[in-house]
Amino acid sequence: FFFERSPIMSGVGSFLKSIDVFPKTLDEFKERTFSGATISVVSVISIVALIIGEFNYYHGIDRVDELYVDTRPEGLLDIYLNITFPNVACDVLTLDVMDGFGESQVNVEHNIHKRRLDRQGNDLNSVQKETRIGHETDEEVAQVKDALEKKKEENYCGSCYGAESVEGQCCNTCDDVKNAYRTKGWALSTHTHVEQCVRERVERQVRANSEEGCNLWGSLQVNKVQGNFHFAPGKSFMHAGQLIHEFLPFEVDHFNASHIIHNLGFGVQYPGIVNPLDRRIKLLEKDQSGLFQYFIKVVPTLFDHYGGNKISTNQYSVTEFFKLRNPQDQGQQGVIPGVFFIFDLSPIMVHIREQKRHTSTMHFFTNLCAIVGGVFTVAGIVDRLLFSGLRGISKLSLGKQ
Fold first, then answer.
1. Which of 32, 160, 182, 359 could form a disulfide with 171 if both were Cys (CB 3.0 to 4.6 A apart)?
2. What is the pTM of this model?
3. Residue 157: how many CB atoms within 10 A of its CB?
4. Any idea what the Cα angle at residue 224 is, between residues 218 and 227, rounded to 5°?
């Protein structure tokens, strides 16, 4: 009414109406269709889904990786492992460590746990067992080595220990010695000095060991320098500053290095870490043996959790090598079976930092407006095209009639 009474204001009102970008249509001229309703419902659902996705993205966390030279002081490197040897008994399984400083840890037992397993992987720790090779005294080991070496000689003729019935009689087994003593009417009170009995005892023990497996898990600490930790047959000891492995030929032949690495990590685990050797399975045939070597490059890592603590740990990459043992090779030419992990540290540190994706709230609301406007715009175009197409088809149908 005010705009109609005043010519000036009436002109201003007319101008303002001319620039209205939201023209209105009377309700009686609006046509509502089923296709339009479908598009409207789909549009609303799409807007809600996109807004939820944008909200989650806005509150999401990004990880930024930075590389720089590791200048932290030297310290200790924590190693966490969980490995199963299906064909090696716990009594003959030892863990030894060497580093670049020349320091060695022989038969590591601190923080290392073992669980006896049968061939099906069942726990045998509750089952009573007899003493097996691997815990004998040095004198007993010497007797075993002597007995096994004599058996390998050509034209071997075992001693009857004074119970020979005829000159040159051979007693090649423990039962032969017992029978010779029985023939003489002598009593054989102990078998510890009889090489045939010692040899057969070892053979029985090794055969029994081959029917067991071992799960070894725990942690150890080493100096932050290159080094290795390994599992190998025989008895290890330090001599002249070097780690020496003393083993019997029979131990080497029956050391099946098949293994399953459940977990192997160098330091505390952080969210998203990937250890390349986790769940690694290496199995050999029952009568096979060989040398497994894993060359590991340890990368120092600092994980900076968003709004939380910093975790100093390590990642690693690995290259593996395997050499099958030929049973015909002897001495220095043969391959000593075992599983060796040779590690070295990278001088480059990785800094993983978590941060929010958006720092501006205005950016978030701008995206919300773009979602709503974009969906309705596209929906309007689709509705017009669909309405025009259906109306054209309807006219054609009426024309044919």
1. 160
2. 0.64
3. 12
4. 75
Tokens of 373: 């406007």
CA–CA separation, 54 and 60 (whole Å): 10
Residue of 256, 235, 260, 238 whose CA lies nearest to 338:
256
The CA–CA distances, whole Å, from 160 to 99, 157, 181 equal 49, 9, 8
DSSP string, 264-303: EESS---TT---TTTTEEE---TT--EEEEEEEEEEEEEE
Distances (CA, A) of 106 to 225, 240, 339: 18, 14, 15
For residue 242, the number of C-alpha atoms closer than 13 Å in the C-beta half-sphere is: 4
DSSP annotation of 398 reads H
Residue 331: which region, alpha, beta or left (left: phi > 0; alpha: psi -120 to 50)? left
Per-residue burial over 321-335, b = 16 or more CB atoms within 10 Å of its CB, e = otherwise:
eeeebeeeeeeeeee
Alpha helices of 59-169 — where are they, by DSSP H?
138-152
- Chunked into runs of 10 residues, the chain (401 residues) has average pLDDT values of 57 68 63 78 91 85 87 84 90 85 83 87 63 49 58 73 85 84 78 72 61 90 91 72 67 83 92 90 86 95 86 93 78 74 93 80 86 89 82 70 55
